[in-house]
Structure formats: C-alpha cells, structure tokens
UniProtKB/TrEMBL annotation:
Gene (UniProt): Nsmce3
Sequence ranges assigned to domain MAGE in this UniProt record: 1-197
Entries under PROSITE patterns matching the protein: MAGE
InterPro entries for the chain: MAGE, MAGE_WH1, MAGE_WH2, MHD_dom
Name of the protein in its database record: NSE3 protein
A single Gene Ontology CC term: nucleus
Pfam families according to UniProt: MAGE (PF01454)
Length: 199
C-alpha cells in the first residue's frame, strides 16, 4: 500500500493539484483504512528520503495535502525543464517495472500498470500529453524503450524492453535501488534481480 501511495502521490503532484484524503482512501488505501495514518506517515517518510519531497497537510479540517520540495535542486542531472523532468520520472517508473518483471513486458501489462498510477493511454494527460504516443513513439524514438512484435498474436501484441539509451543512462542497479527505496526493502529482497545487477 505504501509504495502504491507513493507512486499515486508523485503522479498527482505532477499536476500540482492538492491531494484529498478521500482520494487516497478510495483509490489506494481502500480496505486498510484502519492503518491510514501509518500508511500515510510511511509514504511521507519515503517521499522525504527518496525524492526530497515533504507531504504537508494544508487543510486539517478537510484533510488536504500537497507535496513540497525541500531539497535544493540536484545540480546538473535534472536541470532540464520541469515537464522533461516529470517525463523522466515516468520513464524511470516504466523502466523499473520492465526490469522487475524480468526485462520484458507485454504492452497490455504495461498499460495495466500505468492504469494503477492513474495514467491512461488514449487520454490526454495534463503533464505527459498523449501518454500512448509518449511511450510508443517518443521513448522508443529516443531509444529508452524498444518494442518487438510478439509473433502470431491477433490483434498484434508487442513486448517492451530497455533500449540502448536506457542501458547507458541508468543501470539495473540504480533502478533496483529506486524500487527498493520506494518499497522500503533491501535490494537483496529481489534475489534474481539483485544477482543480475551484480553480473
């Protein structure tokens, strides 16, 4: 629940819309509402440690939260414009999903995963624009992702893998550490992925 909430808050924050407790309960926490404050506190800690963001309640009556940046911007690496930075955030989430699923995922599995983050292909997203286009065209053209048709599928299906640029700009070790931080676990928890990062 914590890692889903962290990803939900990050996606919400990209629109800079305040986040309501009701939305967190309805979309993410659901039947765990007795543990609401524990889940939110843990998510807040993760956001602070991993992303340098602080989860702040701006309206205690109606329980409305925002994320604020409490770290000086990292020099160099993310000096690209905010929209670009957010696209890179989405890309990192997609790359980690592919890696954790064994380095290759069907397009249907990828869209399902993005659905969980409230990012819908075919719907205009306020930050990413046309998400399907961003993933299938832009990230592929930039060589962050590679697609291969799956033979004998009707309608045709595709597999997504890391592209050569992703291999150069990040590493499986960094991605595993990113996932481990979001999930609050040690990277060794995922034995096969961990051994792959050591290879």
């Amino acid at each position: 629940q914590v890692s889903e909430l962290v990803q939900f808050l990050l996606v919400k924050d990209q629109k800079k819309i305040p986040i309501k407790r009701a939305d967190m309960l309805k979309n993410i926490i659901r039947e765990y509402k007795d543990a609401y404050s524990e889940i939110v506190n843990k998510a807040g800690r993760t956001l602070q440690e991993v992303f340098g963001l602080q989860l702040v309640e701006i309206d205690t009556k109606r329980h409305i939260y925002i994320l604020i940046n409490n770290l000086p911007r990292a020099e160099g690496q993310y000096l690209c414009r905010d929209k670009e930075k957010e696209k890179m955030g989405l890309l990192l989430v997609i790359l980690s999903f592919i890696f954790m699923k064994g380095n290759s995922v069907k397009d249907s599995a990828l869209w399902e995963f993005l659905h969980l983050l409230r990012v819908y292909p075919g719907k205009q997203h306020s930050v990413f624009g046309d998400v399907r286009k961003l993933v299938t065209e832009e990230f592929v053209r930039q060589k962050y992702l590679e697609t291969t048709p799956i033979p004998l599928t009707d309608p045709p299906e595709f597999k997504y893998q890391w592209g050569p640029r992703a291999e150069k700009e990040t590493s499986k070790k960094d991605v595993l550490n990113f996932v481990a931080k979001i999930q609050g676990k040690d990277p060794t928890f995922w034995a096969s992925q961990y051994s792959e990062t050591r290879a």
